Amino acid sequence: MKRASHHTTLPALLTFAGLALTCFTSTTTTAHAEEAKDDPLAPWRSGVKIRSVLPETAERHSIHSYFNTCPESPDGTQVLFYSSTALNGHTGEVHIVNRATGEEKTLVTNLETEDAHRAACQQWLSNGKRISFHGLRDGTWFVGAVDLDTGKERVLAKNRLSSWGQPNGDLVPIYGQHWDPGEHTNLELCNSATGEIKTVLTAQAVRDKYTPWVDKAFQGKPFIIFFPVLSPKADRVFFKLAAPGITRDPRGGAASQRLGLVCYSIAENRFLYQSDRWGHPSWHPDGKTIVETSFTLFDSGNGKGTRLPELPAVRGDHPSASPDGKLIVTDSTMDKFGGDANSWGIVLADARGGKHILLHSFKNDGGARSWRRSHPHPVFSADGKRIYFNVSNGTWTRLYVAEVGDGAAAGK
Length: 412
Known about the structure:
Shape: globular
Radius of gyration: 25 Å
Strand order of the largest sheet: 1-28-27-26
Structural class: mainly beta
Helix content: 10-25%
CATH architecture: 7 Propeller
Number of domains: 1
Protein name: WD40 repeat protein
Number of helices: 3
Family: Belongs to the TolB family.
CATH superfamily: YVTN repeat-like/Quinoprotein amine dehydrogenase
Number of strands: 28
Signal peptide: 1-33
Keywords: Signal
CATH topology: Methylamine Dehydrogenase, Chain H
Pfam family, one: PD40
């Protein structure tokens, strides 16, 4: 009987090796795909396009107001900014520019601001149907709104300033002049569609709740609810307190004394927590969490903080979360990253901690010559595909945008 041969032919070996290589390649590709899928930073690691929103030849400031609000309209078609040819940025206009065509439109003229830091506090409201702003005109500080379909400007409140609402809602929080509030000491919400103003919390109620804290800081001086920021569903708000300072000139650090942070439930009419420290807080899209400096998240229900692990130390630090809550973007002086303090960078971090990238760095020691300098104030667009920030290099402070390539981020 002929014994069976155990010899394997060369073609068979090559076929087996090919199958093994195919299997290995497929497994490796799948593993890399899964790893990228689990890495919210992946779309931002390469192929990001960074440019100024206006042409570089534009001889003026184009300033995005703050990291609590996005300059891009909710539908992604327009970008809102403060425009000024004044070297200090204290007088100017509010404009929008069409992202697709570059066509620019002036919404507000003849406006003075406190500083170039937050400019006119311009923001989108009512799902992009209108914008609100504040400023000084003809000797009176006021909060205004412009309806985009008519271009008509309306005065919402006189002798007040505005803080931050939500782009999908009509409400804008307003407060008294912190250097000279007069009777306007309470937290008010103004409906930008109807003009109705409603008091939702009084300064006296804050004093009654936190008497030792308030009295120790202000020594019996009158104070106001200052700089309120509405949560995504407008059911909660955080704010600080302010008492008039030693001058009635709002353009200077001596205009008012500021204190701490208070979080309040509008829906439940109750105080949630109080803190001695106000860093640079913003709302997480979940409506319950406050994003703070040093990559720290606070539960707005009780003030408990959680520091995200293995992320770098930053300085400057105006953090905000992506629309899906998976990323946190902030700004920092570059001395924390081996550079110099006259340069700043945009830092993007995994909201779980552990991973981050330096998205962009730039000279930031020029721009508007205001007593309070403009900072980058990075913030995501509503679809998560773009990050807007200010750059103060040379004569002008300019609005920039970083955009992921090929629609890699969630959204449109």
